[in-house]
TrEMBL record:
<feature type="domain" description="GAF">
    <location>
        <begin position="40"/>
        <end position="126"/>
    </location>
</feature>
<dbReference type="Pfam" id="PF01590">
    <property type="entry name" value="GAF"/>
</dbReference>
<dbReference type="InterPro" id="IPR003018">
    <property type="entry name" value="GAF"/>
</dbReference>
<protein>
    <recommendedName>
        <fullName>GAF domain-containing protein</fullName>
    </recommendedName>
</protein>
<dbReference type="InterPro" id="IPR029016">
    <property type="entry name" value="GAF-like_dom_sf"/>
</dbReference>
């Protein structure tokens, strides 16, 4: 799942996700996927501030009194760990890649390093898409005037 900061700089939302049948048939899937979440939720902001992958234990997250809804959602799906990678360009974070795994220690340190490198390329691709969308919007505005 890839989440990006919203223009209000206070919230983030789901940008791209792949889903299993189990996830799609969860009764709260549509609501959870469409929600805006606070950037400073203790998870998303921690990922954005890190230069390395961040691994969260879902059981520990569930023990937090204040937690975003997506923690409950994925805990219900028997996810054991959330692994997060910052989406950043020029040292500025603008999103996060979440990988939810059902088995603890599913990835080796080498696999996490590879995933971190892939996320760097994902960051560039998303930045290019967002720039293209912005230019398209500006061109449409110019043609409308």
């Amino acid at each position: 799942m890839i989440c990006l900061d919203n223009s209000d700089n206070l919230t983030h939302t789901n940008y791209i996700h792949t889903i299993t049948d189990e996830t799609m048939h969860h009764p709260d899937f549509a609501r959870g996927a469409a929600m805006k979440y606070h950037i400073k939720d203790g998870i998303y902001d921690t990922i954005q501030q890190s230069q390395e992958p961040v691994i969260f234990d879902m059981y520990d997250l569930m023990r937090r009194r204040e937690r975003p809804y997506y923690v409950d959602f994925f805990y219900d799906l028997n996810v054991n760990q959330l692994i997060g990678f910052a989406v950043r360009i020029n040292n500025k974070s603008f999103g996060a890649v979440y990988v939810y795994v059902k088995e603890k220690r599913f990835f080796t340190p080498q696999q996490l390093q590879l995933a971190q490198a892939v996320c760097s390329h994902i960051s560039i691709a998303i930045s290019n898409v967002l720039a293209y969308e912005k230019i398209e919007g500006q061109l449409a505005e110019i043609h409308f005037i």
